[in-house]
Design a protein that fits this description.
Blueprint: H1 2-5, H2 11-57, E1 61-63, E2 68-70, E3 76-89, E4 92-106, E5 109-117, E6 121-127, E7 132-138, E8 143-148, E9 154-161, E10 164-170, E11 178-192, E12 202-214, H3 216-220, E13 228-237, H4 245-253, E14 257-267, E15 270-280, E16 286-295, H5 297-306, H6 312-323, E17 326-328, E18 335-344, E19 347-350, E20 353-357
Antiparallel strand pairs: 1-3, 2-3, 3-4, 4-5, 4-6, 5-8, 6-7, 7-10, 8-9, 9-11, 10-11, 11-12, 12-13, 13-14, 14-15, 15-16, 16-18, 17-18, 18-19, 19-20
Length: about 350
């Protein structure tokens, strides 16, 4: 009976009430999103400033112009101009500089960053003992994608460069910088564990690819190839906290190792494939063993003879020795030789041949 006494609102008034509620909800959602965007943007700015402060506290130099916010509403974008970074490691002086660097993150994923160079990137390393300078210039749009664990530890990083050049020079050399290599479409990926139990656990997995590398070294080796392609997949075991000699010694003493799961180098018609497990000796030189496969070694030996790096009689002996380890490829009929490789006391060898020696770190 009481319901008969309460009049039912007209339909148009009910619609206005629903519209008012929906408008309020939408306005609240928009205000919340805007607030979260600015909070996340300021948080990202704070992380950049904290990192810069930490680097300066270590004695490194970092500089950039005022940070500029962009990208609202779907991404947080911070643009820094005239960025430079310098540090000293022992007798090495390293520096990176670029005209413009953009850091981007999504408001809903603030632990995932993308850093994009909007200008050429110049990186240098000066060896004060050898008085040499190595310079790498990467083309614009080089990009670094990163993802962090909630603890702040790096989980994933991928560096992509769309072309670049590496030069080297020695003080007093009147010829100036010399081309060491040119590359296109190179990428480096690192996936890191948040924590590990012991030295047998994988702390990081590294992947490196370069689809085309041009270098004068190829011609000095005697190969006919004008360019090479390489790929590397490696697993680091044990905790490595830095690249200094003390860090490397601590990693070695705790039983750390590096598994080279796959390394390939293609210099048509020659191809190399290597897998190995390495550690460090008391002088911080690599030591370990693995297997090297060489495809097209007949052609490689003949190229060395033509280039004057090997005499014909030595080449014939090398072919006979390598043939004892070889098999025929079912795909193209070329011969493939498998050799044991080892690194010990600074000497790197493949089968009975010494390839090169490694100085102490």
């Amino acid at each position: 009976m009481s319901s008969d006494l309460i009049p039912t609102p007209p339909p148009h008034k009910r619609q206005r009430r629903i519209g008012t509620v929906l408008s309020f909800v939408v306005a609240l959602a928009v205000l919340t999103y805007v607030g979260n965007w600015f909070a996340a943007a300021y948080w990202l700015e704070g992380k950049i400033q904290d990192w810069a402060a930490e680097e300066k506290a270590r004695g490194n130099e970092i500089a950039y112009r005022d940070l500029r916010f962009e990208g609202f509403p779907f991404e947080m974008s911070i643009l820094a101009r005239d960025v430079s970074y310098k540090r000293t490691r022992g007798r090495l002086e390293e520096a990176v500089s670029l005209g413009a660097l953009r850091a981007v993150a999504k408001p809903w994923a603030p632990l995932d960053y993308t850093l994009t160079a909007e200008s050429d990137v110049t990186a240098t390393q000066r060896n004060l003992d050898q008085d040499t300078l190595v310079t790498m210039v990467a083309a614009p749009r080089s990009q670094l994608d990163t993802r962090f664990y909630g603890s702040g530890i790096l989980e994933h990083a991928r560096l992509t460069a769309f072309g670049g050049q590496i030069t080297s020079e020695r003080a007093g050399d009147g010829k100036g910088p010399r081309d060491a290599a040119r590359f296109t479409a190179a990428s480096l990926t690192i996936d890191q564990a948040e924590e590990i139990g012991d030295h047998t656990d994988a702390s990081a997995v590294l992947n490196l690819t370069a689809t085309r590398v041009e270098s004068p070294i190829l011609s000095t080796l005697g190969t006919r190839a004008e360019h090479a392609a390489l790929a590397l997949e490696a697993t680091l075991r044990g905790a490595l906290n830095g690249t200094g000699s003390d860090d490397l010694a601590l990693w070695r003493d705790s039983g750390g190792t590096l598994d080279i799961n796959r390394f390939t180098l293609a210099m048509d018609p020659v191809g190399l494939r290597l897998n190995a497990t390495l550690a460090l000796d008391p002088l911080l030189r690599p030591e370990g063993a693995g297997t090297l496969e060489v495809k097209g070694f007949d052609e490689a030996i003949q190229d060395l003879v033509k280039a004057g790096h090997m005499k014909q009689d030595a080449a014939e002996i090398a072919k006979l020795v390598l043939a004892a380890f070889s098999r025929t490829s079912p795909s193209d009929g070329t011969r493939i030789v498998s050799l044991p490789v080892a690194a010990q006391d600074g000497r790197v060898s493949a089968g009975p041949f010494t390839l090169f020696r490694i100085p102490a770190f």
